[in-house]
Amino acid sequence: MGVPVFWRAELDGDVLDLDGAEGHHAAVVRRLTVGERVRLVDGLGAVADGAVSVVGKRGVEVAVEWRGSVPAPAPRITVVQAVPKGDRAELAVQALTEVGVDLIVPWAADRSQVRLTGERRDKLLDRWRAWAFESSKQARRAWFCEVADMASTADVAALLSRSDLPVVLHEEARVPLRADPAVRDAVLVVGPEGGITDDELEALGVRPVRLGDTVLRTSTAGAVATGIVLAATRWA
């Protein structure tokens, strides 16, 4: 098992205190003891490794033994995720974060089962960002997965137009998803459980592709598609 990862905005200094929510998790939830090794990250590629030197009631101190930086992952992977209902949203965000997605864009698709505006929309985005944050630590990522604001179909079309691998997943498509090893920026669109409408497909302006011979749920399709792209690029 790897060392636990905790987030800290600044990683300068020979001894770093971990307080607040992260400190509480380290001292109270994980019950770290003096001498245990941890990794601190800022979510933007900076890393500091060391051992716990002090344990308090509300946090810990870490004596830094090594620090460095991790290059931004390439290619950059964005998944546009139609907003699913219930716990499928959490499953989708967790899976996308764990597999290595850089940016998740919630999409208010026509057939999305959740309709949110104003305060309810903001609360949903807060939950998605919290899931991505915790999953990034669990996956021991140096670069954390981000969650964008809610997107319209026009916003998604604009994202696709700027990508050198624009992908729209559709169960009735005939062409399978493939990725060129030279791709720099992939945008993968996952529709809602009810499917992407014909009007949306036309507005997105991208020929749809399929994933294998089975129909995947909206909470798993994005992670599978990302794996296909990464197998030809980062993981190759």
Tell me what the structure shows.
- The protein has 236 residues and is α/β, with parallel strands linked by helices.
- The chain has two domains: 5-69, Ribosomal Protein L25, Chain P, CATH 2.40.240.20; 76-232, 3-Layer(aba) Sandwich (Alpha/beta knot), CATH 3.40.1280.10.
- The chain contains six helices and ten strands; from the N terminus they run ββαββββαβαβαββαα.
- Strands 1-3-4-5-2 form a five-stranded mixed sheet. It has a five-stranded parallel sheet with strand order 8-7-6-10-9, with helices on both faces.
- β3 and β4 (46-55) form a beta hairpin.
- The protein is elongated.
- It starts with a strand and ends with a helix.
- The model has no long low-confidence stretch (mean pLDDT 95).
